[in-house]
Amino acid sequence: QKEVEQNSGPLSVPEGAIASLNCTYSDRGSQSFFWYRQYSGKSPELIMFIYSNGDKEDGRFTAQLNKASQYVSLLIRDSQPSDSATYLCAVMKAGGGNKLTFGTGTQLKVEL
Amino acid sequence: NAGVTQTPKFQVLKTGQSMTLQCAQDMNHNSMYWYRQDPGMGLRLIYYSASEGTTDKGEVPNGYNVSRLNKREFSLRLESAAPSQTSVYFCASRETASGTQYFGPGTRLTVL
């Protein structure tokens, strides 16, 4: 079992729709959760992070965390073609260099 | 602020050649990381440095060495390059407060 799992996609949504990206993790000691966006040929850039159970909103983005079920999700409202990218989920355990473990990413395509 | 910078952006090596990838950050972060990214494999940690003067192995350290030259700079060395080291290499530094890692633009390395 991979430590962090994501559906590779591609996930296709029409412009203006809600895109839902999911991520599951195996280590219950995980404490911090990050969503990064990566455009083709570019480096990952942070969208948002979440530490506590529940929802965290930032503009069109909402991260949801459920530690009991060991999953974290990212919702993108009013999806735009510019949101087309690969979305990486990353999980951090405290200590040990505070390393991040990344999923392999979900490719999102927003279609006109 | 330039953030995280990496040099070179592209490099082609022959099998057995050596090279050093350079990374620098101007955000006064203590921790720095080197990753490689391969299709279908996601980002994998090669080495990290939790603070100036310390380095530790990550998930895939074989064939690499690192040097934390000072708080700003963290270099990655390939002593004898192999085709299996063809990849995109990213350097990152970590903001202590949030745990967020910020990535450099990457180095695309091809080993023939």
The secondary structure category of chain A is mainly beta
Query: What is the total tally of β strands of chain B?
Result: 11
Measured as a percent range, the helix fraction of chain A is: under 10%
Distance between the termini of chain B: 36 Å
Quaternary structure? heterodimer
Would you report the number of β strands of chain A?
A: 11
Strand % of chain A is over 45%
Largest pleated sheet of chain A: 6 strands, mixed
Order of helices and strands of chain A: EEEEEEEEEEE
Mean pLDDT of chain A equals: 94
Topology:
The complex is a heterodimer of chains A (112) and B (112).
Chain A: E1 4-5, E2 11-14, E3 19-25, E4 30-38, E5 45-50, E6 54-58, E7 61-66, E8 71-76, E9 85-93, E10 100-102, E11 106-111
Parallel strand pairs in A: 2-11
Antiparallel strand pairs in A: 1-3, 3-8, 4-5, 4-9, 6-7, 7-8, 9-10, 9-11
Chain B: E1 4-7, E2 10-13, E3 19-25, E4 31-38, E5 42-49, E6 56-57, E7 64-68, E8 74-78, E9 87-94, E10 101-103, E11 107-111
Parallel strand pairs in B: 2-11
Antiparallel strand pairs in B: 1-3, 3-8, 4-5, 4-9, 5-6, 7-8, 9-10, 9-11
